[in-house]
Amino acid sequence: MKPQSLAALCLLLPALALAQMPPAKPPAPDRYTLVQAGSLLAVPGKAPQERVTVIIRNERIAAIESGFATTVAGAPPDATVTVIDLRDRFVLPGLMDAHVHLQGEPSFSRRRVERGDRNPPTGAEGAVNAMIHARRTLNAGFTTVRDVGSNDESVFAARNAINAGRMIGPRILVSGPAISGTAGHADNLPFDEDGDPQARISHGICDGPVACRGVVRYNYKLGADVIKMTPTAGFSDNTGTEPQMFEDEMQAVITTAHMLGLKVAAHAYSPIAIRQAVNAGVDSIEHGFLLDDEGIRMMKAKGTFLVPTLSASYPPPVFRIPDPESVRLRNQYKAFERAYAAGVKIAFGTDAGTFSHGDNAKEFGYMVQFGMQPMDAIRAATVVTADLFGISAEAGTIEPGKLADLIAVQGSPLEDIARLRHVDFIMKSGRVAKQGGQMTEPFSYPAAFLQ
């Protein structure tokens, strides 16, 4: 072929390919939703507003106007406008839970432990569980959660389906397998697989700083949003409360995660392990029931978050124990009360999975019972937890530019925090998930997934 002909063909081929491509779809018309709120707590920590309208364009908040609007000035002619009447409701940002385990639930866990079976559900079983539990959690008004401990498949699958729009569920930040030393709190690896290096990595098990770096990198490769480690034993497996990871192992986990842009949550009871984790730069202490004064001082100085999970101690229904140690230790040390009084940043977390998913809001009752003001408890589950998650620019308040995550209840939770246990309206990223006390259908099945 002559050079001139070859050049002409090279110019022609892209044009032919372009001609065969289907025409681009025109952009979908804008969707406007006008949420008329009798009371609006747009920014927890500030006073609520009365008789306002939240104007939502597609998935984001466009404006907040005084009065009850029914039209949108300047909206394109082809835009749809939907008015939602919450004039007799108290509207606030979608709630967040920094400590859940969507893969399982206590009825399964209790039977498993009582029969001596340490094997967690398979990836397929866990994925089904996670989807069901995610829906229950959304039904309770929690539009964002952080799953801190599952296998290397289940909750990732649920998260990805939600992110792809295949179902309406809470935004999920996933840790994948919690990182543990051999025989530690999160070691669920069967004995016959303990000699398999790949099985150990995929279950989050590491001994020594080099191995721990490798496990962090493996979770990052899985697509983890956060890293979870277990420096101490725990109540749910009757292993106690003492340290189970060396300081250099914790340091390796934290340094590697931060290098990869991931935050680290540490399951920790022992005051020694808490201080070591905080000193190594951990982002949050989970539970922290034995937190001492020095640990509180260090956490405040470094800006470390406490995720108190009071619901996990009062009592966790994983075991049938008449006088659980978790309750005794929590009441003896009063770590939550002391940390709150000292000004430690407290994020909202429940440990749902040690009790039934969907009852997450009971944590508010414990927080207020132990001295936290209702406004601060709500702020912990919105503004503060969004800060811990690193998503404050997107969520945590109802302000222009942010994702439209909001819920509504009857009456003011500032006067009765228990009202948050009965959420009857939920919007997640501009999509109504619950209205009139009824959840919308979970799956949208967009055509792209049917071809």
Question: Would you give an account of this structure?
Answer:
The chain is α/β, with parallel strands linked by helices and 451 residues long. The protein has two domains: 102 residues, Urease, subunit C, domain 1 (Roll); 266 residues, Alpha-Beta Barrel (TIM Barrel), CATH 3.20.20.140. The protein has 13 helices and 16 strands. An eight-stranded mixed beta sheet has the order 3-2-1-4-13-14-15-16, with no helix packed on it. The protein has a five-stranded parallel beta sheet with strand order 8-9-10-11-12, with helices on both faces. Strands 5-6-7 form a three-stranded parallel beta sheet. α6 packs parallel to α7. The radius of gyration is 24 Å and the shape is globular. The relative contact order is 0.15.
Main β-sheet, spatial strand arrangement: 3-2-1-4-13-14-15-16
* CATH level-1 class of the largest domain: Alpha Beta
Fill in the CATH topology of the largest domain.
Answer: TIM Barrel
Q: What's the architecture of the largest domain, going by CATH?
A: Alpha-Beta Barrel
Number of strand elements: 16
Distance between the termini: 41 Å
Order of helices and strands: HEEEEEHHEHEHHEHEHEHEHHEHHEEEE
Features:
451 residues; alpha/beta; Urease, subunit C, domain 1; TIM Barrel; 2 domains; eight-stranded mixed sheet; five-stranded parallel sheet; 13 helices; 16 strands; 20% strand; globular
Short description:
Helix content is 33%, strand content 20%.
Task: Set out the fold topology.
Elements: H1 3-20, E1 31-40, E2 49-57, E3 60-66, E4 80-93, E5 95-100, H2 106-114, H3 123-139, E6 142-147, H4 154-163, E7 171-174, H5 197-202, H6 209-222, E8 226-229, H7 247-259, E9 263-268, H8 271-280, E10 284-287, H9 293-302, E11 305-307, H10 325-333, H11 335-342, E12 345-346, H12 362-369, H13 374-389, E13 406-409, E14 425-428, E15 431-435, E16 438-439
Parallel strand pairs: 1-4, 5-6, 6-7, 8-9, 9-10, 10-11, 11-12
Antiparallel strand pairs: 1-2, 2-3, 4-13, 13-14, 14-15, 15-16
